[in-house]
Design goal:
The chain is α+β, with helices and mostly antiparallel strands. It has three domains: about 90 residues, Phosphorylase Kinase, domain 1, CATH 3.30.200.20; about 210 residues, Orthogonal Bundle (Transferase(Phosphotransferase), domain 1); about 180 residues, Jelly Rolls (Sandwich). About 30% of the residues lie in helices and about 25% in strands. It is built from 14 helices and 22 strands. Strands 1-2-3-4-6-5 form a six-stranded antiparallel sheet. Strands 12, 14, 16, 17, 18 and 20 form a six-stranded antiparallel sheet that branches. It has a three-stranded antiparallel sheet with strand order 7-9-10. Helix 6 packs across helix 9 and helix 9 packs antiparallel against helix 10. The radius of gyration is 29 Å and the shape is elongated.
Length: about 500
């Protein structure tokens, strides 16, 4: 429809350039002469204007989207008809489609892909709450604006849940690269169908390609019905098992196994973003923006230096000051004979705290079920005093086994002389061990480095007798709980070498 360029719809919207064209309509960059701003005008092709079903579908899109107001949904500004040509006017989003972004980058950074999935899921959840199913979720229908934010557009085949659809005869609408099994079969389509399509979009963002390829659209649609989605971790091994599980569940064929609603999927995606950002040691772009919007239960999994990068400089200064105070306090306590056994041989000089990798901490429970809140261990080396690892709860504050603990991998090895413990639950008893290889799976394989000591303060330093031997692994072994407290919580563990 190039002849429409330069014309004005309803005396208001001047068509300046063609943005995109599909089977039913063409989208133009237009200029709103009344409000003096750029907009996007979607005009139904004349061939469809006389088709009652197609005309109703087009009008319904306008009514459906006009009901929605969400930061991740493209807003409808106006609707109308000009010279028997129905049109919808949207806000103009300068940028690119998610499909174009994937084509340009090949595959997206992992945290960015999860961030976009969260934004899309939040928008779909809002639409579903308003009884609207998109039915055509795909990267081509997600716009990335100049600030990097995702916005869903094109509810052209959206179906409201509270009215009969125009596809009751079983015709399949949608793009088969992302189509849900039930939609491919012409069955009832619900919000779960949108979540399936989002799972496929997430797969493509992570791998750079759709999961199924076939000689035609029907073959691809049947692959969505019959074939299991490929293992996303095989195509991109850097992806965490947490994120891979989300892709698998979203793309389940069985509705009972798939995410029931957007809230479940969003919660898992938010946790996955925390995991991926922590593993990467930081986040940029849209991932950083979404991290700031995470609920506390997910945000607390992310090191403070990742959530608030500017915090790092101030934290270093504070840490230095605290270290000075602690060393002075330890020395003073030893001289005055405080009775704390672990302060008896405090070295006179300390080096900088040993740098540990994000995966250096592991839970150690050889005398129980071999797990002790392993999903929390990264909190004790994340530099954030507000996050904690905790033991399991033991009724009556009675540890029902000889001990549980945490190991630190100080690869390639170091002769540490102090272990620092920051805890909100002082009063527990510990021992510290070392190992040059392993780590050993039983306590018998470890070398004792300290006597049994009570952690009496929130900030405690335990002297280690390494005798200048470099140990790769260190074990904090907890043998007794605080009085009247059913679990131990630890915010940070730190190793110090001699200065």
């Amino acid at each position: 429809m190039p002849s429409l360029l330069g014309t004005t719809l309803s005396g208001r919207y001047r068509l300046d350039a063609r943005i995109d064209s599909g089977g039913m309509s063409t989208v133009y960059l237009a200029y709103d002469q009344t409000l003096e701003r750029n907009v996007a005008a979607k005009i139904l092709h004349r061939d469809f204007s006389d088709d009652p079903d197609q005309l109703e579908r087009f009008r319904r899109e306008a009514r459906a989207v006009a009901r929605l107001s969400h930061p991740h949904i493209v807003n409808v500004i106006d609707t109308g008809e000009d010279d028997n040509r129905p049109y919808i006017v949207f806000e103009y989003v300068a940028g690119e489609t998610l499909k174009q972004r994937i084509a340009r980058l090949g595959r997206l950074p992992i945290s960015e892909a999860v961030a976009y999935a969260i934004e899309i899921a939040r928008a779909l959840g809002y639409a579903h709450q308003n009884q609207i199913v998109h039915r055509d979720v795909k990267p081509q229908n997600v716009l990335i604006d100049a600030e990097g934010t995702a916005k869903i557009t094109d509810f052209g085949i959206a179906l409201t849940l509270d009215q009969d659809g125009l596809t009751a005869d079983g015709r399949v609408l949608g793009t088969t690269d992302y189509v849900s099994p039930e939609q491919a079969l012409g069955h009832e389509v619900t919000g779960q169908s949108d979540l399936y399509s989002l799972g496929i979009v997430l797969f493509e963002m992570l791998t750079g390609d759709v999961p199924f390829r076939g000689e035609n659209q029907v073959v691809v649609a049947m692959m969505h019905v019959r074939d299991e989605i490929p293992d996303v971790q095989i195509r991109r091994p850097q992806i965490s098992s947490t994120l891979a599980a989300i892709v698998d569940r979203a793309a389940e064929k069985d509705l009972d196994e798939r995410y029931i609603d957007d809230r479940e999927m969003i919660a898992d995606l938010e946790n996955a973003l925390a995991v991926e950002a922590s593993r990467a040691g930081g986040a940029t772009g849209e991932a950083a923006a979404v991290i700031r919007s995470l609920p506390e239960q997910s945000a607390r999994r992310i090191p403070l230096r990742v959530r608030h990068p500017g915090w790092l400089v101030a934290a270093v200064a504070v840490a230095v000051a605290v270290a000075v105070v602690v060393v002075i306090g330890l020395a003073g306590g030893a001289e005055k004979g405080t009775g704390r056994q672990h302060l008896a041989v405090v070295p006179k000089g300390l080096g900088d705290a040993i740098s540990l990798s994000q995966t250096a901490a592991k839970d150690f429970d050889p005398l129980g079920d071999n797990t002790e809140h392993g999903d929390e261990v990264s909190f004790i080396i994340d530099g954030d005093p507000n996050t904690t690892w905790s033991t399991e709860s033991y009724p009556g504050a009675l540890l029902t086994k000889p001990g549980v603990g945490i190991t630190l991998d100080a690869n390639p090895g170091v002769a540490a002389v102090l272990m620092g413990i920051l805890t909100p639950t002082p009063g527990f008893v510990v021992e510290v061990y070392g190992a040059q290889a392993g780590p050993p799976t039983t306590l018998a394989g470890w070398t004792p480095l300290s006597p049994s000591s009570t952690v009496t303060e929130r900030t405690t330093r335990i002297a280690l007798s390494t005798q200048s031997t470099a140990y790769r692994y260190y074990l904090l072994w907890i043998t007794k709980l605080p009085k009247d407290v059913d679990q131990v919580r630890i915010s940070e563990l730190t190793l110090f070498p001699r200065g």
